[in-house]
Amino acid sequence: YVYTDLCVLCDGIYEHYINFGRIALYLISIVVIAGLFRGYNKFMRLHWKKFHLLNYVAFYFVSIHAYSLGTDSSTKLFIYLFWFFQIVVSYIVLSKLHQLLLKLRS
């Protein structure tokens, strides 16, 4: 049910937030499958790092899903941790993009 049910034109905002969780599940499933087949498939051995980048995209989908629908999203500890991890992951993503731009320039 989770893998097959995805609404594009949903009735309410709640279903859109559910979709963020589903999309994150799809992305994480792709990454796990790529990791499992990394040792058996030459294509996966060469390109597994590209699949690994999907984890960063999945993180933001999970964050939106959890912040919007989570039962603990109103507690102070959750909010502090949420923003701490948003800053940390955003810093990592920006530093990776900066490294990529430096490689492309040289």
Q: Keywords, please?
A:
106 residues, mainly alpha
Explained architecture:
76% of the residues lie in helices and 0% in strands. The chain has helices at residues 13-36, 42-52, 54-69, 76-105. The model has no long low-confidence stretch (mean pLDDT 86). The chain has 4 helices and no strands. The radius of gyration is 17 Å and the shape is globular. By secondary structure, the chain is mostly helical.
Ends distance: 48 Å
Which regions are unreliable across 5 or more consecutive residues at pLDDT < 50?
none
Kindly provide the radius of gyration, computed on alpha-carbon positions and rounded to a whole number of angstroms.
17 Å
Tell me the helix content: over 70%
User: Can you count the helices?
Assistant: 4
In total, the number of strands is 0
- Strand residues, percent: under 5%
Provide a compact summary of the structure:
Helix content is 76%, strand content 0%. It is built from four helices and no strands.
Task: Draw up the topology in text.
Blueprint (H helix, E strand, L loop, with lengths): L12 H24 L5 H11 L1 H16 L6 H30 L1
Helix pairs in contact: 1-2, 1-3, 3-4
